Structure formats: C-alpha cells, structure tokens
Amino acid sequence: MGDYLDMEHGRFTLSVVLPDGAIEEFSFPSKFTIDQVKSDILRRSAKFENLPEDAKKQFLLGMNEEELFNVEFTRCVTHRPIYESLLKDGADGEGVVVNCPSGATAEEFLSLALQRLRSLVTELEAAGEDIAKEKARLQAEEKSENRPDRAENGGATTSSSSSSPSPSSSPLSSSSSSNGVDPGVHQEKMSAGSGRIRVKILRQNFEGEESPSTQRRKPDSLAGAVAGDNGARRNSIWAKASPLTSSPTSVRSLSPRGFGPRESLADRFSDLSSSGSQVLLPRVDKRVQGNGPTLQDLKKGGPIAIQFYLPGGAKTVDLECLTTATLASLKDMLWEKAKSGDECLAEKARYSVKVWHTHMYLTGDTTLLYQFPIIQFCWQKQLLARLCLVDKLESKQDKLMSLQIGSLIGRPLCWHTSDEDQTSHFKHKISKLLAMANRDWECAAQAKLSIAPVPPDFPTDILVKVHLPGEQRMATTLHCPGDQTFLGVMHQLAKKSQATREGQLDPADYVFKITGRNRYVVQLDRKLHQIDYVRECLKRRVKINFSLVLRSSVRLEDVDGDLTMRSSISVPLIDEEDERLEKKLKMQGTCSLLELKRPFEFKLVRIENVKLGHDASDESPSSTSSTSYLYLEAGLYHGGELLSPVVYSQSVPTSENPTWIEWLRFETLMCDLPKATRLCVTLFVRDGRSNTRPIGWVNCQLFDYRDRMLTGPLSLCMWPNGPANPIGTCVENLEARSPVILGLEFSRYPQPVVFPDLKPLFPDTVPQPSRDEELILHLLIRKDPLYRLSPSEKRLLWKYRTFLRSLHSKSLVKLLSAVRWADVKMVKQVYGLLGLWGPLPPLDALELSDNELAAFLLQLVQVLKYEPYHYSDLAAFLIERGLQNRVTIGHYLFWHLEAEMSVPEIAERYGLMLEAYLRGCGDQRADLLKQMEVIKKLKSVAERTKEVPLARRRAVLHEELAKVTLPKSFSLPLDPTVVANGILVEKCRSMDSAKAPLWIVFTNADPLGQPINVIFKCGDDLRQDLLTLQMLGIMDELWKTETMDLHLTPYGCIATGDFMGMIEVVPEAETTAAIQKAAGGVTAAFRQTPLANWLRSNNPSDKDYTEAVTNFIKSVAGYCVATYVLGIGDRHNDNIMVRKDGHLVHIDFGHFLGNYKKFLMYRREKAPFVLTPEFVFVMGGKESAQFERFVEYCCWAYNALRRYANIFITLFTMMLSTGIPELTSEEDIDYLRNAFSLDMDDEEAAEAFKALIYESLSTKTTQINFAIHILAHRK
Hints:
CATH class of the domain at 1068-1273: Mainly Alpha
Radius of gyration: 35 Å
C-alpha cells in the first residue's frame, strides 16, 4: 500500500497501488486493523473483481491485527509526481495559497509551503494594526446587540458575508487540545494591538531538516479516532486579512477531499474580518497555554486512574499508576491488589488485557502505557481508563465469535460509524442484557396454541397418527374426541399399542412432537383442539401426525413458549442506578438550553466534491458554473412537523467546492427547541432557466444521545438527490467513495449546552366540557390515525386534557397529536398527565405474547429507523424479547434486520442490533451461519441458472445443485423449527418467469417428516409480498377471534437480503390459468364449468365435494374482502390458485393500495375484486342459498375488519420508511381510509359492499384479462 496521506477525526486516507498500476484513494476508520483494510479494499475496488483467487490470497497474507492509529506509515511520495487531478486553479480557501508546478514532487511542494508560511507571518505582522481595529469595532457591536455568547470570547470575533449577524465563539477545547499536538509544534507569535494571535506550524509537516521521504508522521489525537465526540473536533472558523493577495494556483492537500476526509481547513481557523482576500489563521489552544494535559505531559510521566474488570466482569479493581510504567508492571500491581482483596487469579500468562466494551487488546509486556491509544485518549480527556482481564481461551473464543458475527452481518465489526461515542453507548447499555442471556439455547418451540374460540363445527372424532419411539418406527392411528387431552391420548396409546403393554408408557417420560418439525407439546393437559397445527390439518384435510419422544431428549428449559409460560431473563430495560448517575452527571459543568433565549442559527461554510453528473454524459462543474447556481434549503423539524419557516442560503456560482461563509437564522428560539429536533438540509442546483433540482441532502439531530447540543464545526457526508426527508435517517453517507461534504458551524459556548430534564407540571383546575364539546371529543377520538387535527380541534383537546384521561385511555394518542412540542410548559404538563393516565390496551402498550408480538415484528423493526439515536427502549425491548424466545421472535428479528443491511442509511444501526443479538443468542448463531451458507449457495446457483436459455435451465440447475455441498443439517429461514439435511435434486426446477425463481425440494431431517418445498427468489423485492401476507395473516386471526374462519392461506415468506428470499409452496394447488388451459384454453376463460369440473374430479364423493365447495365459498369471501381493502392489483389467473380441497389462494402481491396495472394509460382491472361467473357457478349460481351465504360472509368480514381499521392504517404508516415504491407517503395510505368507509355505519357499509359484489360479478374485463393472459403465455 502507498503513502500515508492524512488523518482527521479518526479516519485515514490511503493511496493504494492496485494490481493494474492504477492508484485509488480509500478512507478508513483509524480503528481498522491492517487485515480489515485489506479485506475492505478487496470489497470496494472494482480492480480486484477479475483478480485470480491465488493473487487475492497473496494480498491477504500477513494479516495484521494492529490498528491503524497505532501504526506509523512511511511517506513514499518523494519521487512520485503530484497528479493533475489533485491540483486546482485559484484560491478556494482550503489552505495557504502556494504556487507550485503540476509536476512537482511532494518534497518540493512541502519546501515551497514552508517558505509561504514563513512569509505569511511577516505579512500578518504588518496587518496587525488593521486587525486590532476591526476587532474593537466588532466588540462594540457585540455590546450593543447584547449577545452573551460573544462576550465570552477573548480572542478574535467573526464577521459573515451574510446579512445575518454571526456569533463569535469561545471554544471549550480548541484546536491542538482536540488533536493532540505533539511537542514538535513550532509556534510564532505576532502582535495585534492589544491581543496576540498564534500561528502554528507543524515541524513534522513543513520544516526542512528532515526529508519527507524518510520522515514519519505521528498520529493525531485519539479523541477523534475513538470518541467521535463533537466537542473533540477542531473548534475553529474562518479568518480574513487585507494585505494578502491570492496566488493563481492552489495546491490542495494530498487527499482529494481537501485537508481531511471529514472536514475542510475551514473548520480549523479563526475568523478575523477585513476587506482583503482570505487567509487562514489557526486558533489559540488553551491546553498549549497550560490549562490541560498534553501528550508531552503524558510522555513525561504522570498518574492515571485505571479500573480493571476481573474475569467474569462482576468485580473490579481500581489502580493508579504512572503513564511511563510498562504493561508488565501494571499486571504486577493488579495481581498484588487482587491478592490483598482475596481475589484468586491464575498465572499471568493465562490472561490477556482488553479495553472494556471493545475488541481492542493491549499486548507487549515491555510496552509503556502512554504508547497505548486508549491511555492517550483517557489522558487527554481526563477519563477513567477501563480495562478488563480476560482468559486467553475466552479471548480466542471472543475473536472467533467476532468473525462469525462479522460474516453474518456482512462487514467487519469495527467498521467506521458516524458517531463512535454513540456506538459505545449502545454497546454499554445492551451489555447488561447480554450478560444475563441464556447462551445454550436450542431451536425448539412449543406447539402454537390457537387464540380463536373452538369452531362450532369442530369434529367430535379426530384421527391422530402417533409414531412410536424406536428403530422400528412403528405407528398407530387413534380415534380421539376433539376435546381429548394429550394425557388422554397417551393412555389411549398405551392401551392400543401392540408394541407395548398397558402401563409401560409412563406419561412423565414422554412428550409429543409434531412430526417433521421441532415443535413439542410439553404440557399434557393441553387439548387437541387447542393446538393450531391440529386445526389447520383438519381444515386442509391433512393427516395429523405426532411423534412420541423421550422427555429427556428435549431440553425443556430451552423450549420456547408463550409469554406467560417461558422463563424470562428479567432484565429491566432501564437500569435505575445508571439512570440516576447519568442524570446527576448530566448537568455538571453545563449550561441549560432553557437559558438561551435567542434564535437558532448556524453558519454555512462550504461544500466539497460537488459533481453534476448525468446518466448519459458527465457534465463538469466548470462547464455549468456560468449558467447554474447552487443554494441550500434548511429546515428544523420535530417528528416530521416543521417548527419554523425554512431558510435559504444565497446562490453561488456552481463549482466543485463552493464557499458561502453565511449565517442562516431561524425564527424559533433555542430555548423552545424540542429534544428530538433535527436539522434537514438540501442542496439545490438552479440553471439559467430557473429550473431547480436537488442534488444532495442530509439530516442531523441537534442534540446527541447525551442530550448535548451540537456546537462548533461539523462536516456531514450528504446523500445524493433528495430533497431531505424530515423523518428520514440522521446517519451520514459514509458508504459513498466520494460523497458531497457539507461544512457547517454551530454557535459555541463556554460550557456544553444540555437539554435539561423537564419536571412534570400538574393542572390546577379541571375544566369540564359542555355536552356539545363532549360529543365533538368523542368524534375526534374515533378518527383514524391519519386524520389531521385542525388548530381549533387541537385547542379543544388540550383544553379538556384531564377530561380525556377519564374518557378513554386510547384518547392519549389524539392528545399527543395536539401538543405543541416547542412549548416547554405544555410539554411539562404532558409529562405530568402521562403519570396519571390509565393503562393502555395490551395491543397499544405492546404487552403482547410472543405470537402476538411476532405478528407486528416487521413494523417494529422498521420503526427503529425513526429513533433519533442507536440506543432506544424499543431496540432494547426487541433484543430482550428476541433473546427470550429465539424461535418465535429472535429468528425473524435477525432476518428482518439482515434484509435491510444493504440500505446504507440504516446499515449502521441495524448492524449494531444484529451484533448485540448474535452475541447473546448462543448456539443459535451456529445455526444462522448454516442458514446463511445455504442462502449464499442457492443465490450462486440461481444466478448461473438465470444466464442460460429457458430450455436448458432445468439441466443446468440439476448440474449446479449436484455440485453444492450443504451442512449436515440446517434450519430454514422460513421456519426455524423445520430442519433439512439435503436437497432432492431431481425434484427441483426453474420456474417459467423473468426472474427464474427456483423450486427447491429439501429433504426433512426428521426421517418421518415430509419433504420441504420452497421457492427461492433472487432478483425480486419480497418486502411488499411480506407486508401483504402479514396483513392477510392478521385479518385471518382477527376473523378467527370473531368466531369466523374464512380459510385464508397466508403462506410463509421471508426476505433474506437485498432482492432475495424464500417463499413457502402452497401444496396440492393449481393456478386457475392452468385449470382453464386444460379445459380448452382461451375460450375456457369465458365458460362457467372448468373450475367446478376440476373440483369434482379431485373430490369424487359427494361428501368431499360438498366440503370443498364450503371451503371455496369461505375462502373466496375472505379474499374478496382482503384484496379490496388492501387494493391488491395484478389479479390475473396465474396469480390465483385453488387447492384440491377447495381453498382459493391469492399469490404474488406485486401491486397494492390501489396501484392497478394499466395498458395504454387505461386501467386493466376495472372490477373492485376478482369474482367471475365461474366462481359463482361453483357456489350454485346467483340465485342459490350458497351464494347468499357467500354475500353474508363478505359483509360480515368487511364490517369485522372496519372495527380494526386503525390498526391496519397504523401498520402501513409504520412501513413508510421501507422504500417500497407503492408505499412512500401518507397519500398512498389514503386508499385504506377510503376502502374502510369509515364514515358509514355497519348497515350502510354492508350494503355498499354488497353493491361491490354485484359490480365485480358483472364486470367482463376480468374474464377478458384471463383470456389475454392465457393467450400471452401459451407454450
């Protein structure tokens, strides 16, 4: 690898010579190890794609676990010319302007820069008098405006090119204190009237005593590298001086982004106002003046406090030693202290020293403590250094676990994050939860219980087949009553079994297992009709199969069950002791936000790397700068609500690195900002014809996870296009190789500004509404979640807030919608009301059983995107419940998170969630690794199969599957209780579709189980199918709880990655298109008899046919209501299947919420839902009693769903962040509001739906579409 170019804020920019001789720039976190750098280069560079595997392995040889900020890189640029791409004409404010030939070497450039800096000092001395006058003028202006934040600044004040006044700032920690300036810093002073300004010149960069080719640069402060703290960034702004003139050529820093990869030089210097051109002046460093510890003091030796966590993490030992001590002497002190405290430790060689809550190890017994980055960081920050002693065997296991987790997540665990402090905070909070997790959990679950009442038509006599234990695999079939307990089945089995005599089967020794699945009936007092599996088998006319297994072979303590029967980890989401300590420390040495009664404002400094490229051609900024302009739009939002009118910057000519130096002020006062306020910024380009388009956007929280407000300079990597989404991510675009970088600066204060803890206020009076007002309140509470309250309605709700508390607990949702969150007094009163409010219903409060929680898990994972910080109560809640029940919750939590890891906006947060879960899930991690291995191999097979012509796909598929080596046994992502151990290659096929999905048949690991049929899709986005099937499942459960089973078939579906996943195969089913093709082709689509004849052929007896027709009527009614409410489109006859037992099933949900397919701008599907004369013929015709029963089912089901309309609207609203094309805004969900007819009563709604039934039946375009589809897909 090439030269060490730059390091800033914990990142290195490396120039790497690739195999073809080309040189590429790469930016890495300073905490990356050398092996992670190599692996990341292989992943990110296209140059390595065609490199032979042997060459790749050679590149990865010599893996080094040393972290970047602990490695000294030798400069290798002396004899390499600086490339033209790193040069720029004209002064752009990025540094001291230096004239330099384009072919100059780095050594020549550094020599010229040194001369320029020395001449700068002389010129500034001449300008000192003018600067002093300007300073006095601005100080007088400050006093007249009475701006307290300026009065604190003892140095130079600022002036802006904007019309807005710009606050000066007094840095809490200035440039060198934040960046650990070494003793090698040379400082020259100059007089500026009554003040003094220091110009710092880094000897290691610019002095000529040592050749740059052999010189080694020391790493900057660890504050930026480890903490990522805003306060640790360089606190500096711009400066101006009049006597200087700009040189025609400006050589930028060796990094293409400017001086540093995260910020420009604008973030390093003070702002002195004058009328000349711009130069850059470093700020005065308080720590250099002796007000804080420096690295020089660290190397001289001083005491540092260290807290050691002993093995197990339960006990600690506090030490104090000199920074010049060796690691070996530190261990000696620890052993002596531990011995005196009666702590038993084995020999020292058995242990390793590790940084607490990280994967960083301290190695080398002769290494001095101050040489370790963690000691440097804690010394500079004056923090307690926390280390832990770990067993080396555990250390190896920990490293192996980290490799496994990194493999599952898809990136190394210490990849760069936007905020290292926040990441550490998340891990610290979650660590207590993980410490108490059961790490020896197996994938086994109790049989799911049905929550619906027993159907009145439930059979009284059930055939149950029981497989007996033993090598003979004997089985017996029992006739059991529907309300028979499993204990009764056990006794009945003992009497009938010929293999055993009565009394030999002791119920205490056995449990029942669902054959083919790892689901058990452990509690033998359960009745047959309580088991969901039994009900589904009876409904689908499938044999009921149980296996009798020894109770000792099932780890009962590991079997998941319902919320009420499982063993809980019992870890509170909020540690009360930690919370009290955090609150105590929060306000120490800080300033309350409520004391700042001034408008919020920030300085727009500059933007870097603006590229105005297009799809067909790449238009350079220089070619458009004369006709186009750039400007920014900024807004303050809270929960998607705009707090203040948006503000706009001045327009500047388009260039690659435009500069503003402009303050943007909002109307909102700082003391009125809610804690979750975010700044949303969009960069626009406007051409000569006043056409504008967004080219970049970024959001940032104004308060960090510690409730501290952003201060000082900040650089943000913007996302492309836009505009900014007020409820979108607040994570930077760190994945892009060359993003647009926005340079901002916030006002600074003598102390950190903290959002205080608001004390609840309680109302003195309790007004009562009039009769008319009470009626209005009742109506408002019943409004759907998307209803927008008017200002008068908000005032009414707030006026009678105490009355609402007694009215209905659900009224809390509407009351919170009426709160003005920028009104501190109102927020305090809301806090008071929350403590008095009645308990919410279980569904609203998420006090759900595991099966109920699993039904809403998809939305809860998506809602994590809206949380302002990585750690939240919701994140902890999901991890805790997932670890408690790893089959029902944890397994699907993993895959929901994993499927979104390709989305860069949320990958950082979801990666942390995945790491936390995988560290606590124990043995399940190995099973997930197997599943991931199977998925990757199937993906490879699917991609190869898709490349060949349709006629050869089956043969190629069988050939590729025969080469695949799978684990001996593995669970399927669709259902972790279904375990496979191979593939039946001869039964697999590639389906006739554009994406060529694979029909895969797995062998069941249970020798008594049936083969497992799945469809593996690669290239299709399954998220919309997953959401639709989830809604169908919820509808099915709701109808069952209302004592009506409409026989929906919400088959399994899981997304396992970006455009990849598995779908459960509906067994014994055929598409209506295939049925019509077999009955005559195109003409059969217009006949009434094909479907009835097909059902009769598969149900020859009158009893079976009558039962099939009943199943058909109920399922058609259910799907008519469901597809209408959800607005499901593309309902051609290949997307509708019928099972042999009569159940109709809809599949492939590519369009919903009323997004129907069109042909030549005309809507192809004109019927509200699919109901053809062919369907009605099966029911007996329009005049039959069965058709009337069908209409009754539909109207009843429609009204039953309307009572839960708010649930469906809320669930869809929670999915707005998924990026599903047909679900991007609240307007898309308006379809649901209209479909539920919320303004009608039940009788009116039933009549309306009855009209839809007859409208669908009389619409001929449905049959025409069926015929066209058959014609288009003839073979």
